[in-house]
Amino acid sequence: MFDLDSNIIVLLGITFFAAFVDGALGYGFSSQTVPVALAFHPNRVFIRALAIVDVFLNLYVPLINIKRKFAVQAHMSIMELT
Predict the structure, then answer these.
(1) Whole-angstrom Cα distance, residue 19 to residue 13?
(2) What is the DSSP letter of 5?
(3) How far is Cα 74 from Cα 71, in angstroms, rounded to an integer?
(4) How many Cβ atoms sit within 10 Å of the Cβ of residue 4?
(5) Which ranges of 1-82 does DSSP label H, i.e. alpha helix?
(6) Cβ–Cβ contacts within 10 Å for residue 62, how many?
(7) Model's pTM, two decimal places?
(8) Other beta carbons less than 10 A from residue 37's beta carbon
(9) 79 compared with 29, residue with greater pLDDT
(10) Residue 22's closest CA among 57, 64, 49?
């Protein structure tokens, strides 16, 4: 199987907790993850990995919310007429 050391397990825990808080409260994923994770990993290794994760998250969120955009636009156009 996979050989997971304790640093990777801690990093996964930090990441999942930050994603949970980000989803629940909308508070920034990077703002929570970076200060805590820098205690376990060197800066240049961690920042590169986090940048890749952030790129995929920033591409994914607009794609899953595209249906809501059209519903909000329809509602806003009705409000503009009144």
Answers:
(1) 10
(2) -
(3) 5
(4) 9
(5) 6-25, 29-37, 43-64, 66-81
(6) 9
(7) 0.49
(8) 20
(9) 29
(10) 57
Q: Measured on CA atoms in the order 29, 64, 62, 25, is the torsion positive or negative?
A: negative
Per-residue pLDDT of 1-35, as tens digits, reads 556 677 778 888 888 888 888 878 877 777 777 88
**What is the Cα 78 distance to its own chain's centre?**
33
CB contact set of 9 (below 8 Å; sequence gap of 6+): none
**Residue type at 41?**
H
Annotate 46-61 with b (16+ C-beta within 10 A) or e (fewer): beeebeeeeeeeeeee
45, 37 in Cβ contact below 8 A? no
Mean pLDDT of all residues in 57-66 = 81
- Distance, CA of 76 to CA of 70 (rounded, Å): 10
